[in-house]
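Progress against Task 2.4 (sequence-to-structure conversion) is shown through the following example record, which the project officer requested during the mid-term review.
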Amino acid sequence: MSPSTRRAFVIGSAIAAVMPLSSARATPEQMRKAIEAVTRGAKINTGKVTLDIPPLVENGHTVPLSVTVDSPMTDADHVRAIHIFNENNPQPHVLHANLGPRSGRALLSTRIKLNASQRIVAIAELSDGGFWSGAAEVVVTLAACVEEIV
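Structure tokens generated for the chain above:
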């Protein structure tokens, strides 16, 4: 490789590495719009949903998260779905899980990537059509999700 070709490669790589940092992040407004798309503008009540996530994580590549919803999980009264949203990752709607009365418990555990320190919101859709939420702030010292979505 000639020096000018190497130089162009290094400069191009540096630009490609920096560009996703600004363009690959959602915003709090995009998270709000994603939540509205799921709830179809319905009122969201606070409570019934417990979001368990560490308040401080050293590495955003694998962050444990669990959501518990206070529900009897009967045919008449159960959780239909749990949604997870965040405000700084490339996609604000991180997860959608369908549940039903046969699920036994309204409990979801997973691991997610976090791009930066941000607010995480869990929303439960109940069988009566109501929506309940819980939220948590997470400080991330080493970010994940810096790749660009095409």
